[in-house]
Amino acid sequence: MVSAAASMSAAASSPLKTLQTVFGYERFRGLQAEVIEQVLNGGDALVLMPTGGGKSLCYQVPALLRPGTGVVVSPLIALMEDQVGALLQLGVKAAFLNSSLDFQAQREVESRFLAGGLDLLYVAPERLLTERFLNLLDRVRIALFAIDEAHCVSQWGHDFRADYWQLSLLHQRFPTVPRIALTATADERTRGEIIERLGLDEARVFCSGFDRSNIRYAIGLKSNPRQQLLEFIRRDHEGDAGIVYCLSRKKVEETAGWLCSKGLKALPYHAGLSAEIRQHNQRRFLLEEGLIVVATVAFGMGIDKPNVRFVAHLDLPKSLEAYYQETGRAGRDGLPADAWMVYGLQDVITLRSMVESSDADELHKRVERHKLDAMLGFCELTSCRRQTLLQYFGDTLERPCGNCDNCLNPVQTWDATEAARKALSCVYRSGQRFGAHYVIDLLLGKTSERVRGLGHDRLSTFGIGRELDDKQWLSVFRQLVTRGFLVVDWEAHGALRLSPASRPLLKGEQTLFLRKDEETGKTAASARDTRRSAIRFSDPRDENLFQALRGLRRQLADEQSVPPYVILHDAVLMEMVQCRPETHLQLARIPGIGERKLELYGDAFLELIREHAGQRGGGAGAERSTAEESLALFRLGLGVEQIAARRELKPSTVYTHLAQAVARGALDALEVTGLSADEAARIGSVWRSLPQDRPGVIKPLFEALEGRYDYGILRCLLVSWGALSN
């Protein structure tokens, strides 16, 4: 008889074995193992993980280990097809049922399902809830129900789907089948609604945080948005795949056409296009490299393309939830990516107008106003954007991230109290009947037939604002509207009116500091992430091999009519370049290569690597120092903690390795530490204030900074300043 301890040990090892042999990863990340254990034991779970955090494994692994078929509720056809295609590459028996299949194909899938021939079946909620399909489920052993994109259940969410409300009947009809609901986007209100609507009162909640540390956030002011977008793409993302979001269908069409006229590959996507065109453009985006999709928010929720290198917004999203989810479509592979946006006063006016003119009830409007206010406040931030974004979702980040525009290029503020009073007074004295541009003309003392006809050239506020130019005044008005000192009267064609909040400011009872706007191009350029090099190679021989590996992947993908990333992710190819494996065993050690992919593609990739063996010093598979290995992983986009876990080293050891790279100029200290230039300068000031009688000793600086910074961070800084030999 097997002991209980032995049984538990065997059970505990089987998820890890499945992860290693099927999916090709050495170990679980974050909370994955705990979630899988909960579901394997028959318990319900609500999982909140950031995009790219590995949510799918949380139900795919237990579905493979529990008896029966895992049924996955997925809201979009593209998402089903993408995930099923990837699973088939791994040797998993997976299928989907949706309207893209003809009658015969649907019957074949159902027959396999009834015969127990499927590990996972993906289905849309509207099909799942039909009596016919529920009767089908009654005849099959079900391993689990996975409800993907669970935030669709929330009536307050931006992706609300009424069919999700009825999914609670799964528990009523199949009470012994575990359920796992998953989402990357849910604030406290939405989490509560997911639990209530899906009947997950007994579920264990797993929240692994919302930080997408590989994404750099940057927000600038609109001047010439299409030109700004083009400059951003050409500067940072030439040849990369990306998504550009616009608010209107017309703007989508115009922007896509304009980008094409500038030599870029761009396609439009919006609900006004026929289903055939939408499907064709989406398919091209998945299959082709370096394609840009210009879209309304109708595009993206079902897209699992891992190597989207940027998401750009030419119009302001309606909420931080929408912004987080849309920007989260960049960098799913964990490599550096950009979330770039430009906005202006007209965005504020347009979105507020959409809220006020909608047919929603007052409660819903109040919620939408709150969400929009949070979005506007996020745009006008002078502090770390990532900290604020995470705080909105109930998460925390102890220190500024060092990877957003405000950290990389700290915002200056100015005392705008007097300017704000002039602006508010001019709005009031002109009758609260005009928009910002007209009031700015009055402040600047610009005469026109309209101004003279209304007698506004005789107002006491006429010409009192000549110390600022029209761009600076527009910045003042934008921030006054954003902060609630002015409101826009939609029934009066966008006229500005004073809000009750303006009274203390007008009476001199309040001071006001506003952000000093810089030119967007300058801000974006100075905020460039030095870790962009993580997606390129400094050695041209490495770059040549990487491109050759991508070419082979492209060929294999074309042969099977699947997207290239379904074969292998960019990160896997990059690690091949770094490691130069010579054998199947060495290749199998690379994360992302499981037994099935090793069997299918191992020989082809190894042969190509051997062809390039003589192009690099030391030959293929040359032993590299442990410090070089850490540097290689860092250039792949892994952080210090991730490298330490991967290599089973202490973080302090990894910092020492990276400090060596800093010392010889291979890395920048700010790149390693994630500190802004200002923060590093402040640390430098503290260091210079200390007695210099103990050169090379880090402890006095550590203590002077009250332990706020890791020894490894301080080591890298001191090495870069020449104050410490490494």
From TrEMBL:
Its cofactor is Zn(2+); Mg(2+). SUPFAM superfamilies: HRDC-like (SSF47819), P-loop containing nucleoside triphosphate hydrolases (SSF52540). The keyword Coiled coil does not apply. It catalyses: Couples ATP hydrolysis with the unwinding of duplex DNA by translocating in the 3'-5' direction. Transmembrane segments: none annotated. It holds the Pfam family HTH_40. One of its GO terms (biological process) is DNA recombination. Residues 36-204 form the Helicase ATP-binding domain. One of its GO terms (molecular function) is 3'-5' DNA helicase activity. The keyword Plastid does not apply. Its EC number is 5.6.2.4. This is DNA helicase RecQ. The gene is recQ.
